[in-house]
Structures are given as C-alpha cells and as structure tokens.
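Task card 7
Instruction: Convert sequence to structure tokens.
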Amino acid sequence: MPVGVAKGRAIYVDALKAICILLVVIGHYNPEGVPVHYSAFVDYIYTFHMPAFMWASGYLYTLTFRGKPYWQFQLGKMKRLMLPYVCLSVLVIMIKLLTSGVADVEHPVDLSAFAKMFYYPVAGYFLWFLWALTLIFLIAPFFTSPVQHLTLFLVSVALCVPELQWPDAFCIAQFVGNLPYFAFGMCCADFVKSTPQRNSRWSTWMFVAASLAFIGLSLVLFVLGYSESGNVGRLVAGLIGILMIVPVSVCLSRLRVARILVVISEVSMSIYLFHTTFQGFMKALVGRLTVETGFAVDVTLIVAVGFLGPIVLHRYVLQRFGVTRWLFSLKAPSAKNVPPGHSDKNGVMQSNKSI
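Output:
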C-alpha cells in the first residue's frame, strides 16, 4: 500500500479522518423537507463515514499498540473517550434544560437524563461512537496476532449477519454492528506491516483506479438499495465504502492539501463532540431570521458553523486552559503541525492516535 508518511505520522489516515468528520457534520443536518438530492447524498455518506472511522481506529491501534498492561491501557482509553463523553453530556443536558422554555429544543430532556447518560447517550445519540469504541477497546487487547485479528473479524461478521435485537443500553447494538470495521482495520494494519512499502507513480495510479472502481460500485449498491437490505447489505456497503475512502485518502496525503487535513484531523474529536451544539445554535438563529434565505444558504451556514465553530473552540478555549485540556483529554498546543514528508522504511506509524 503506498502511503503518505511524515515523521512517523500516517498522513493518509489524517486525510481519512478529516474527510469523514466533514461528512459527519454534513450528515447531521438533514431536516424534513430538504431537496431529494441532498437527502440521497446524506443517506449515501451514512453507509461508510462511521465505518471508516472505526476502520481507522482499528488500523492505528494495531500499528501503535505497544503492549501496555491491560488496566493501564483501559484507564487511558476511559480518560480519552468516556471523560469527554461525561463532560459533554452534562453540558448539553444543562443547555437543553435551560433553553427548553425559550427555544425549540430538538430531543428535549428532563432531570433523569443525568442518570440515563451513564448507560445511554441521551444528550445526543451521535455519542454512541464513544460507547461502542470503549467496548471494543475492552476486548481488543486480547487479540494480539494477525491470526487472532482475522478470527475477530470473522466472528464479528458472524455476529452481525443474523437479524438479532441487541440491547440499546451501553450502545451494545452499535458495538456489535461496528466491530467488523474495527477488526478489518486491524487486518489491514497487519497486511501493511508485512508488505514492503513502495512509492511509485504506478502504484499511485493503481490507487486512483481502485478508488474510482469502488466509488462506482458503492454508488451502484446504494442506488439498488443494497445498503438498506438488512445487516448484510449494510455490512457490505460499509466495507466497500472503506475500500473506497482509503485510496482517496492516500492520494490526498500526497498533495499540499494534506497540511490542512492534518490540522483538521488533530481537532476531529472536538469537532465530533461539539458540532451538533454549534449546529443547534445556528439552526435556531436561522429559524428566527425574517428573511427567507433558501435551503442552499441554510445548509451552508449551518454546516460551516458546525464545522468551524468547534475548531475555534478547540484552539482558543479547550486547548488553551489546563482544566479543559484535562476534561476533554487534549494535548497542549504544539509548536507547529507535522508537514507531509517521506515514507519510513517500515510503514509503522506511531504518532497518530486510535482516537
């Protein structure tokens, strides 16, 4: 696999995360009455953007895990995933309670939400991702070899295929549904580690061709409704979507735009946590305008604020103060961003996090 790497950082994974977090923000604005083409686009990106995030987490986990003691690893992941979840849940619930009488609040809550948030993402269902990833990391350290990674992938696929009703508590259903993508990322990482890296124009064009082929295939499956034909269809659509977005990310990692994508990737967690809050404020503002702006203007404003607002918040608030860095598990600001550069000889990337 040709890779874009700089100083031990997998730039192409940064590109993937940047693309997918933008698609997440777009996908979370899909109100009733939108044009058919926009609704179809949102439905299409939903087939692969979260599977791609899961793939990236499994991929980076396998490349970067260094055999920490189990409980030390789990404490780190709890701080990385569940502490921000609790902090954001409390904040969002409080905002909803305080504004419910003066504004139109989507998915209103009551005081019981402060208890429910410890077993269900009542503050915002999009937070299921943090629950599912936490559960995945509870079992991931028990699978250490390529054979075990492949076994986990096959077992997880077998669990997904039957139309079973998994519990919603603790997002177990999402855990089961997304485990195959994480395990697929583990298998891809094993392949990369065992395959000599080649950087050639021929391999780049092969990736371009593969990307175009998978884009076409995924579109065909989407138009035919295969992504909505039960668990098997959704699983196949997700895996094909991953095989589509990875070559695109690899190609982008070789361009100058990679610098921007790295910056976006580094704040992707903050964007994920806060984008719906910023979108909610912007939707309320747009709804109060006396001038008819039209859908194109509305979606541009709401998506832009949902995407850029968390970046500004991250830069000037969350990352600036020690207490907010601790609450949301952020690093102190670095002197400069890592620029795209040359590939290392092993293709082992150590700087990216598996979220």
